[in-house]
Amino acid sequence: MNIKSLMALLFAVAILSCEENRRMIVPFVPEGDRVILLEEFTGKGCTNCPKGSREIENLLTLFPDNLVAVSLHAGFFADPSIFPLGDYDLRTDEGEELIDYLGSPIGYPSGIVDRTVFNGEMQLGANAWASAISQYLQTPPAIDLAIIKEYTDATRELVVTVNGIGKEEVSGDITLSIMLTESGIVDAQDDQEAGGIVLDYVHKHVLRDMMTPAKGETIVTNISGGQTFSKTYTLTLDPAWVADNMEIVAFVSNVNGINFPVIQAAHTGVKE
Q: From the CA atom positions of the chain, what is the Rg in Å?
């Protein structure tokens, strides 16, 4: 694998301080090109969840080069038989599997940052996301990732290759996950802050499908500095999805028993 192409992923990052709702993010410059994964659990029937969605947009502004978000419509509040809102069922089989794998939230909005326990909890309220992201960014990634993609409009075929290189030794199974998300989906949403049901609510970062199994695919067991891997996947996009609004989210996790923290994430637009 061309290591130079991976090095091109390194970002020049300057994180600015921000005060919002009396929270202060202390500015710092990460030592490497760490990209953090935030997985938000949500549903159209969840009246508090839009608060979390708005916080995600704030965080993507605060950490523009170091954060990728995925909204998982799964569980009770996403079930259209319980909350028959709008036209679309935004659930996926993978999302339902992940809410079991990662743990169902006790309260909403709720999200998981890098699948890592923070202050004794994995499921975090929106007011804790910024602190967790800020802390994890201070650790450089043990693996670098690069996404190479090819999308054909005529056939809607998407080919994704993920290349990785170890920057230090990591023990255990290294699993690769590839998610496809879509933004700009207009459908109903219960939104307490907006006064109730919003018929033209814009859903963002919605998990549409995965190119790997929901829990990821073991790509290598144990990895050392300089060791590389590469895997290619192909999927035909559903005709209802808008490719221009879709993003490829790839990440690697270090699986050791009941722990499976994300080591590094990467993302790019399907047609970017």
A: 18
- First-to-last C-alpha distance (Å) of the chain: 22
Helix (H) or strand (E) holding 109: none
Integer Cα distance of 226 and 144 in angstroms? 10
In this structure, what token pair is assigned to residue 201?
């609510």
Nearest CA-CA partner of 18 in 134, 125, 124 = 134
At 129, the pLDDT band (50, 70, 90 cuts) reads very high
How long a stretch of residues is the chain? 272
Helix, strand, coil shares of the chain, percent, nearest 5, are 20, 45, 40
Q: Judge contact between 175 and 219, C-beta under 8 A.
A: yes
**What's the pLDDT score for residue 257?**
85
* Position with higher pLDDT, 217 vs 272: 217
Contact 160, 272 (CB under 8 A): no
48 Cβ partners below 8 Å, 6+ apart?
108, 109, 192
136 near 111, Cβ under 8 Å? no
Burial class from Cβ neighbours inside 10 Å (0-12, 13-18, 19+) for residue 112 reads: buried
**Is residue 19 within 8 Å of 51, Cβ to Cβ?**
no
Residue 21: how many CB atoms within 10 A of its CB?
Answer: 9
Residue 2 has pLDDT above 70, yes or no: no
pLDDT tens-place string over residues 165-181: 999 999 999 999 999 99
